[in-house]
Design brief:
This protein has 10 helices and 6 strands. A hairpin with a 6-residue loop joins strand 1 and strand 2. The strands form 2 sheets. A 4-stranded mixed β-sheet has the order 4-3-5-6. The protein has a two-stranded antiparallel ribbon with strand order 1-2. Helix 1 packs antiparallel against helix 5 and helix 2 crosses helix 4. It is globular and about 55 Å long. It is of the alpha+beta class.
Length: about 270
């Protein structure tokens, strides 16, 4: 699956950044709910392992999910229990090595294979695409905290597609009905290609950089902090609450709270 290779490359890109961050900064809170870089890597590593278990050890996956539910603890607490014994450098090394293993496993998997998960079963393609999305989205707080602007590649097209496919989910998780059909998207890819989705419309339309759209649907930026051109009430409403990830409904960050910090002077 190409998505497995895209996940691999996104992980490597984030690893390159993380490897440049001083270990002393790993415990500093980022703009995302106070998570530290250690929290981010623990989270990505744990759920990469759970995705791998979807294929290699479904019973083990279910056991972890039941343990969290039965004990009533947060994901961050459980993740810390699993990997709290690892120092920052050891954690990063284990995370990036295992991501390669997970990518190899999914690359050889049937994209349509149905896999167990916390919610409904999902396809193998959907699972590894979700890992790519999470790596990219949680990577954003590390880039922002480090004062680095990410150089995106066209693999973010997977996240655009995920954002499109979860138009209805954004409303379902809020027990709302979409106020109309999905707006027309006209997005510029990192390569300069133009990606379009939805039925052509001048009344309901979202235009701009694909990166900005991905930031909005992953809730790493408020729509007000992007240069996306949003036309129409449906498009405006969607972009005010878009959510491409599973779980309970989440509000996007408040305007001005997620941004690339100015890098500290040497």
């Amino acid at each position: 699956m190409q998505q497995a290779e895209d996940f691999r490359q996104e992980t490597r890109a984030l690893h390159t950044l993380v490897a440049s961050v001083p270990v002393s900064a790993f415990g500093e809170p980022t703009q995302f709910k106070g998570w530290t870089t250690v929290d981010v890597i623990r989270h990505l590593h744990f759920w990469n392992r759970m995705a791998h278990a979807q294929i290699s050890d479904p019973d083990g996956l279910v056991g972890h999910l039941k343990a969290m539910a039965t004990r009533g603890i947060t994901m961050r607490t459980y993740e810390a229990e699993q990997f709290g014994h690892l120092g920052p450098e050891a954690l990063v090394a284990e995370w990036v090595a295992f991501a390669e293993t997970a990518a190899d496993l999914f690359a050889a998997a049937d994209p349509k294979a149905r896999l167990k998960w916390a919610g409904p079963d999902m396809s193998a393609r959907s699972s590894i695409t979700a890992r790519l999305m999470e790596t990219w989205a949680h990577g954003q707080e590390v880039y922002d905290h480090a004062g680095m602007v990410r150089k995106n590649e066209d693999r973010i097209g997977n996240i655009v597609t995920l954002g499109v496919n979860t138009f209805g989910w954004t409303y379902a998780t809020r027990r709302e009905t979409p106020p109309g059909p999905m707006p027309h998207l006209v997005l510029s890819a990192p390569s300069g290609a133009i990606w379009t989705h939805g039925e052509p419309s001048e009344q309901e339309r979202i235009e701009g950089l694909a990166e900005a759209f991905c930031q909005v649907v992953t809730q790493t930026r408020n729509i007000a902090d992007t240069k996306l051109k949003v036309t129409g009430p449906v498009a405006t409403d969607w972009m005010s609450k878009a959510q491409c990830f599973a779980g309970a409904s989440n509000a996007p960050p408040a305007p001005g709270t997620r941004f690339t910090r100015k890098a500290a002077k040497a």
